[in-house]
Amino acid sequence: MEPTQREVDRDLDTSMKMFERVQLGEVAPLAPRAPRQVLLALDGSTQDATSIEITVTLVNRYPCQVSILAACAGAESVAEAARARLSGSAIVAAVGPEDPFDPILEAAAKHESDLVIAPCPFGRDFEKIGPDSAGTVVDVLLARLNRPRFVVREPHEIAQPAFHHIALRSIGENEAAQAAAVWAVTLAAAGGSLELVLVFEEEMRENLSMLLKSLDLNIETSDDNLIAALRKAHIRLHRALQKSAEQFDFDYTLTVEHPPESAPFPDRSFSALSLVVVALERSDHMSQGYARDCVLHRRQPVLVVPRN
Predict the structure, then answer these.
(1) pLDDT at position 262, please?
(2) What is the pLDDT of residues 228-261, one digit of tens each?
(3) d(Cα 277, Cα 298) in Å, to the nearest integer?
(4) DSSP secondary structure code for residue 34 in this structure
(5) Residues 163, 308: contact at Cβ < 8 Å?
(6) Which H helix or E strand runs over 11?
(7) Spatial contact of 122 and 71, defined as CB atoms under 8 Å apart
(8) pLDDT > 70: percent of the chain
(9) 302: part of which helix (H) or strand (E)?
């Protein structure tokens, strides 16, 4: 008897799964990385309240130690109020008249902080900086701070459960995507959702097209083919996030975003986001400019995660 279409489809699916296992090997769920040392940098701005709420959320979830840095004049009272809410935390003195980014970098190194939380812009009124600038301090931290950092662009209510909807955004082939995914899994609330957004920009399209044509002049370099290649490049991460979602009880989706220049951050599903996580490969990679754009244009807190 001839096999039915359902049997053919089932056998094909089984064969494809076997092929994927051979190609990928065993893919385990991502292990959460609980923060141990958190540096809370305050500047006396209205964003400080959001930074403190994020820190309180982390302390309630994980047994982490918090160091509080009042890096600007006038932030001392806010730091004292934060210490009152965060039992066991310690205030770190900002020594000398340096630029605010110096004591932040020094405190992060001294206390071996694995997470830094700071407002944007730092030490300047948002009205004076304007919507197109992150401020010097944040620009320096993006370039020089070699550890994950929460950036709070404007006051934002931290709804409970915190981090219920997370967008993990990675641009191009990004070696920081794995580390960023670990932090996204760590923070994702049970019963919430996590979306992996692979950003496919014009620069990447041109680079891939040139590479493929150098290998084969007759190869077709349509956007569909290039997007398929981008998905395949992240297949192991995709499988790991799928398994993480099953183990830690959150919904997971994968999308590829190819935004036009006029709308780099579509509002499609981000109005209810709790957190944006961005993978930052290195300072001369396209991901640095993209991380900065996310900080500038996202209302939600942004967690920028550099490569390990």
Answers:
(1) 44
(2) 777 888 889 999 999 999 999 999 999 988 765 5
(3) 11
(4) -
(5) no
(6) helix 5-24
(7) yes
(8) 79
(9) strand 302-306
